[in-house]
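Appendix B. Raw example, untouched.
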Amino acid sequence: MEESKVHRTWKEELLKLNDPDITVHDIYEAYPDGVIDVEAEQRLVEKHDCIVFQFPVYWYSSPALLKQWEDEVLAPGWAYPGKYALEGKYITCAVSTAGSNDDYSKHGKAGYTVDEVLLPYRLTASFIHAVYRPSFTWYSAEGISPEHLKDSVPAYISFLRSIQ
């Protein structure tokens, strides 16, 4: 998160809101050693109706610790089958890409859209009986200008408020 100008800015701006309906939880800050407190994470998730995975897209995927979080926290017996602790909760992603919108298209450099790259999140939501909402994407984040970065903040906050 700290290496991404976009995500660092989004995090800082969300914290400034001091909105009781928004919890900012940076797993890289919480677990610098990579050892995740699974029970604490599950309790945190249970307290919220909407989970937003915010990350820069790296190699058409999420950062490593987020993948580890998914593998450990979305555990059998809690997230599926049986309890389905996230049943009916909203799940979505807020991502940034180095590439442009044109790059993330059928005929672009990636050959796929960001929504296609994020398909594992939609499939995971379905598997654990959560409701997947369309993602928020901020393109061309690499070398982003201050003006473009400033524009991203109200767009992101508006997205968060519109999820449900």
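End of appendix B.
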